[in-house]
Amino acid sequence: MAYQNYDDLPLCLSVKQVAEVLGIGRNTAYDLVRSGQIQSVRTGRQIRISKDAMISFFKQH
Length: 61
Known about the structure:
By secondary structure, the protein is of the alpha+beta class.
């Protein structure tokens, strides 16, 4: 799905969605999550990134 602005983003994003929004590869997005550069929450086997955490990362870089 193509997001037009911040308001279109869901409250929680998967790593795949974050990669699409930032225009990076999925492996790079996982590396950013693992290194703590993008804050995330793990629920079982799923990793979720809040909309605010993704926007914060985007503004810092």
